[in-house]
Amino acid sequence: MSFMWLSAPLVLLLVCSSLLEAQEIKPKRVPWTTSHIHGSPEPPKPYLALRSFPKLQFKEGLEIVFQPVLKRWFVVEREGRIVSFPQDQNADKTDLVVDLKALHPEVENAYGLAFHPRFAENHLVFVCYTHANGLADGTKLSRFVMKSDGQLDVKSEKLLLTWRSGGHNGGNLQFGPDGMLYFSAGDSEVPSPPDPLNTGQDISDLLSSIMRIDVDHEDAGMAYSIPKDNPFVTTPKARGEVWAYGLRNPWKMSFDRATGRLWCGDVGWELWESVHLITRGGNYGWSAMEASQSIKPETKNPLTPITPPVVSHTHDEAASITGGYVYHGKRFPELVGAYLYGDWVTGKIWALWHDGKQVTRHEEIADTHHKIIAFGLDADGEILYLDYNQQGSLYELENNPVEKSGKFPMKLSETGLFRNTAKLEPAEGVYEFEVTESSWQDSGHYAYWIALPNQETIHTSVATSLGKNGEVKASYKTEWPKDSVLVKMIYVESPTTREGKKVVWTKRVETQILHFTGVDWNAYSYRWNDEETDAEIVPASGAQRDLIVAVDPHNPEKQKLTTWDYQSRAECIRCHNSWTGYALAYQPSQLDGAGWFPSVGTKKSRVFSQLDLHQDLGLIESHFAEQTALRLSSAEYSDPYNFSAANQRARSYLHANCSHCHRANAGGAVSMMLNAELLLGQTLTVGVTPQQGGLGLANPKLIDAGNPWNSVIALRIAKTGTGHMPIIGPREVDVKGLKLIEDWIARMGNKVSSADELLPKQWTEDVLRESLKTVEGAMQVLRAVDDDLLKEPLRQKALSIAWKSPQVTVRDLFDRFKPEDQRERTLGAKINAAEILALKGDAVRGSQVLSLQGKLATCFACHFIDGTGRDFGPDLSKVAARLNKAQILESIAQPSKVIAPGFAAVTVEMKDGSVQTGFMIKEEAQALLLKTATGQTLTLKKDEISKQTMLPTSLMPEGLLQSLTAQEVADVIAFLELRR
User: Fold this and answer.
1) Secondary structure of 838-907 as H, E, C letters
2) CA 859 to mean position of chain CA atoms
């Protein structure tokens, strides 16, 4: 990297250090003593994770079950091994119970384990496992007998039933208090597009459901019997085993030992993670709904109404929910009766209390950095959880002794990182550094600093061992000092006026801080004010900001309006995870390639690097630099005829932008691994069919060697909207990065220097039309547009055709070329009520949005507005007579926060198995009068009712405003304000 890419302070520091090295004088370290970054801005969570059974590890454990008769724990490992160990914290080994893969070589995943309620008498054990995806009978539910030595008798296996295998298998097994076996199944498909089999609302198969069977009796021709009181036994074409349905990927369920209620966590799709209370015949929405968001409403099963989740989380705080257990232990009396559950991606744990009708309390109780894949419950009601990885461990909760410490700096100027914040002059002991390859974040430019308290050092130790072939292997462990801080400054190029002249100015947008508490790493963002004198901390949930950015760095007249996302703290930690070492920028591979500088003025001239400098300063030790021989290569530099160099640049780009999730165990939803130290063949990308769908490609591959247009990795970088990658951080497409990846893929097996050489030799309108009929062809047209190969009016014709394409992926590829006044900047999941209320609304425009032809036409399905609609929810014709402007917005954006009197929903279960949901109009001595969504008023006789439950949430769906712009919402409110 040349000097032109380095900041002046760093160049000076490196040159001075080179001179000092030439004289064999090490640079002097200055202590950092001004830090005010301690604790956190919020009260600490009440519980911490404590390693349990510290001498044991498990390879990709998926389930943990305690057997009270044997007084042993059992862990199911993904590849088919089931092991056990005693209830002894000193246990140092596990005993093999069964190796399903040795029994059945086709086994790919093992999911569920359950012991018969009368295990002491019959020794029966039930196991769920799968073969390859997409097999009609690929998921197996089997029964085994356990021998006296604790192993399963493999010859005793009896296959009870099978169903389709796929990406969402569920596979959890639980015996209910009624002695019946309950088991779960997901929709058996890829995450996107949602529910491609349309099985979520279909009860003619076992998918997307929870089943209930009797394993102690057998019906004719079956190895089990279907209980006569199952809800759909007499329903035509329905599978009688189905107990409840409408679940996407029910990941862990459990019965409350005290009440018998069945809890279930359901992994969400794009917006929501859900927790459900499962009842007989219940419909939980998928894929007609995702929690409160409409997905495929046309698929809704009319047999039973949709029951909303008890609790739902946005992807700001959870991304893959893991169901847990209701706590009835003795260690934490304050948690008794609370349902504890967690999240596989963010590592958070929550507790919720439910009185049978509604949630009475709900709070986050722990924030771990573990992949919480399963919870386990011992005989005393104490809860453990399993961390999923190659060397997985078990954890329990312990009380957090840390109290909120002092005043956390709410402004950047209060952190002690800068002696002059407005001038960005770092404090003594705060050192700037450069990275080779920064991640893309909407044309941002970056600066980095490291600050270690006082004169402390990052300690790295090394241990060696012999490999299988006698080679010496080194493993490194790096430990950071408590209260270490890493700082990333983000700028954008923005048009402004300086000294009376319009120029493109580098504008400060965000400063990100990564702080090590001594136990955990926490991430914080600070938002700069317009004067660029200081920055204020962003709320934990994140924020958004409108920015005018320059399209051409040399022309201030070319500009566009964009939205800058300040990510939530949970989203930040999804990338800064344990598998990356948390500190993404401060790693040997990033520092090593940042520049090599010759010493001057001495015969003892040698190469000098940042790693040498930081070691001489005492920031790191020698072992830190030894951790990897990998040196990243900046994507700024190009040698189009050198594939080795192109491969290194492309791999470095993917490493910086993708590998924090897409590496072994780091949370990516697909198995590819993009960290650059791997060989290309080890990345599981070339020639591999994508697990997450092809986004419209006919025969998609993650990387189709030689064909970038059929490569999903390139497609996800290229498109906007759903499915764009990276999923966290940028909104805009990195055009330079896209070209880098496309050129790299094009060179695989082709003697070309650029992907342009693979494009049609001549572009005509007919060629454009034919190309834009497919996603693969549209990728070629996109490259031609980006490289200015289409001259007007052909370019405009291409855009016009693409914008009208019936294929959403084609439209997404070209959305960024729309004029700003045609690009809708919708609200998404994060809604800033204050900003919306500050806008001046137009009632006429609002009436168009809230009309039978408008974006909010669904409102008329439940509400009357000026005589039009349906009489189910409150009449909105006079809504302003009871709600002010802010309350109107809140009632739409958060319908469950304050439910209008008389409109709290009730679910009534009848003894005949039917379920009705609606508003209770009147309760009489012998009957209930219930208004349903069809507008009917039903009279339900009380002696025919088995159960009635008040729902904690509104029947009005959340997320109605996500597809609207802020101005459209303001217009709708202006219209409703006139309804008096």
Assistant:
1) HCCCCHHHHHHHCCCCCCCHHHHHCCEECCEECCCCCCHHHHHHCCCHHHHHHHHHCCCCCCCCCCCEEE
2) 30
- The string over 911-936, giving b where at least 16 C-beta atoms fall within 10 Å of a residue's C-beta and e elsewhere, is eebebbbbbbeeeeeebbebbebeee
- Greatest CA separation found in the chain? 103
State how far the Cα of 621 lies from the Cα of 456, in Å rounded to an integer.
11
Q: Give me the count of residues in the chain.
A: 980
Which segments of the chain belong to CATH 2.120.10.30?
Answer: 47-399
> DSSP letter string over 374-402?
EEEE-TTS-EEEEE-STTB-EEEEEE--P
* CATH 2.30.30.100 residue window(s) in the chain: 833-977
**Tokens 């547009």, residue located:** 785
CA distance 757 to 787: 12
Query: Which amino acid does the sequence have at 74?
Result: F
**C-alpha–C-alpha distance, residues 544 and 530, integer Å:** 14
Main-chain phi, psi angles of 110, to 5 degrees:
-115, 135
Query: Crossing angle of helices 775-786/794-803, nearest 10°?
Result: 140
Instruction: Give the three-class secondary structure for 211.
Output: strand
Q: Which CATH architecture fits 833-977?
A: Roll (2.30)
- Write out the DSSP string of 266-299: E--SSSEEEEEEE-TT-B--TTTEETTEES-GGG
Distance CA 869, CA 382 (A): 52
- Both tokens assigned to 533: 């004198």
Output the pLDDT for position 596.
Answer: 34
The Cα 898–Cα 900 span in angstroms is: 6
| Number of helices and strands in the chain (H, E) | 18, 47
3-class SS string, 907-975: EEEECCCCEEEEEEEEECCCEEEEEECCCCEEEEEHHHEEEEEECCCCCCCCCCCCCCEHHHHHHHHHH
Measure the CA–CA gap between 99 and 778, rounded to whole angstroms: 48
Q: What is the pLDDT of residue 881?
A: 85
Position 318 scores a pLDDT of 84
- Does residue 921 contact residue 931 with C-beta atoms inside 8 Å? yes
DSSP per-residue codes, 557-587:
EEEEEEEEEE--HHHHHHHS-GGGTS-SSSS
> Per-10-residue mean pLDDT for the chain, 980 residues long?
35 44 64 91 87 95 97 97 96 96 95 97 97 94 97 97 92 97 94 87 97 97 96 96 97 97 93 93 94 85 92 84 96 97 93 93 92 94 92 93 73 96 94 86 88 94 76 82 94 80 84 89 92 92 83 79 82 76 85 46 45 88 77 59 72 86 64 82 87 82 94 92 76 89 91 91 93 94 94 93 88 86 65 84 86 68 77 82 86 78 75 71 81 72 80 66 79 89
Domain 47-399: give its CATH architecture. 6 Propeller (2.120)
pLDDT of residue 560: 79
- Find residue 411's DSSP bridge partners: 536
Whole-prediction pTM: 0.64
CA–CA distance, 706 with 717 (Å, rounded to integer): 17
